[in-house]
Design goal:
By secondary structure, the chain is an alpha+beta fold. Helix content is 23%, strand content 12%. It has one domain (5-94). The chain has helices at residues 69-81, 86-94; strands at residues 5-7, 14-16, 29-31, 38-40. A hairpin with a 6-residue loop joins strand 3 and strand 4. The mean pLDDT is 79.
Length: 96
């Protein structure tokens, strides 16, 4: 039996088998229906193909919602690990 091997889009660690959650950073993940890339389950738009990851259809987002959810999750992860301070996190979030 061949196991699926992929990498977490947040922490970059290898994931073997169950792709629903990263064993390293606990990010909840899904596979994009359009491009088959692993992305955050909360994403409304795939960061790789820009389609809806659940339907594979084009996504039209309003300017207020057009942000990179993966970037926000990465910043949260960096904050938890102490790679950035709370002040840096707040400043970076304002720029997204």
């Amino acid at each position: 039996m061949v196991k699926k091997i992929s990498y977490c889009p947040i922490c970059g660690k290898k994931i073997i088998g169950n792709l629903n959650q990263c064993p390293s950073c606990s990010s909840k993940l899904i596979v994009c229906r359009n491009c088959a890339k692993l992305i955050l389950s909360s994403a409304n738009k795939c960061q790789f193909c820009s389609k809806n990851p659940r339907t594979g259809k084009s996504v039209e987002l309003s300017p207020n919602n057009d942000f990179n959810e993966a970037s926000i999750e990465k910043l949260k992860y960096d904050l938890v690990l102490g790679k950035i301070s709370v002040n840096e996190y707040d400043q970076l979030i304002k720029n997204i």
